[in-house]
Amino acid sequence: MLALAVLAMPASSQVTINASIDSLQLLIGEQAHVKLEVSCPADGQLIMPTYPNNHLMDGIEIVGEVKADTQYLNKNKQMLVSQEFTVTSFDTAFYYIPPFEVLVDSQLYVSNPLAMKVLMFDVDTTSVEAIFPIKDIVERPLTWVELWPMLLALVLILVFTALVVYLLMRYNDDKPILRRVTIAPKLPPHQVALQEMERIKMDKGWQKEDVKSYYTELTDALRIYMQERFGFNAMEMTSDEIIDKLNEQQDKEWIDELRTLFNMSDLVKFAKYKPLINENDMNLINAIEFINKTKVEETAPAAPITQEIVVKEGRSKRQRMWILAGIIVLTLCGVYVLYVFLSRVVHVFF
Q: What's the pTM value of the predicted model, to 2 decimals?
């Protein structure tokens, strides 16, 4: 490395400039690095040389420039500024690089000059076989690596298009929908009541010291049955009113049994009476007997009914906003994928 330092002023000025180059000789087109170092007072105003046209001089071009690096020395009293240029040349010649010029506090300082020799590489002109004509453009086959991104983009475009069409149909379709519904036949009152009695029997509420709930469920099941079977509003009537209503019927034997059950229920619910377990069992049996004695058997079970009902499913404003947002997002995604697809096609085929 050539590193000659030239003092532009006496040593008391504390300003030195050094220029160096890492290669004095290179082949045409090769690159060399020129380094410029300036040492000056830290409080001085330094202006480094610039080359707007990227030409260090005629025949030598600057192809790269590293930003100036500053270091502070002697307890921050002196600064060292380094800058590096990457240069090249495409003309064979011996180049004399003139000194670099810098300004420190508006005073001019110059560096040492440099030299660089550019050589032409050897060409074998004696062998005709070494000289080849210009080759024609060779068409190379497409590879899967080039094709699969285009195929994937094409599939995504089709998917996005289908989703946008579907959402547009959903957005515009605000008509009521017809649904086919199968309606199960209503069970006869006595079957519903007997099922409820079976549930009460399996629950065994009277054995859980929950006698009040037991009699409430038992009498409510009977009231619902009588309301469906005899046609009077038993749920809104007192026990005496129910018995009086039933007295209008012909058979009196099961009415006396039912009277005992309702009286026992009223004592339990309002007088905190605690009947014996066998009394609880007997009242449940009497309720089942009452249902069996008064039930009306149907000649043939009713068949399930299938009918169409109209369901209003108009889109709410919130739903329509979500659908519209989905349409916009999918459209933007589709446009982007289409752009990528066309870019790949142009890159591969043109």
A: 0.38
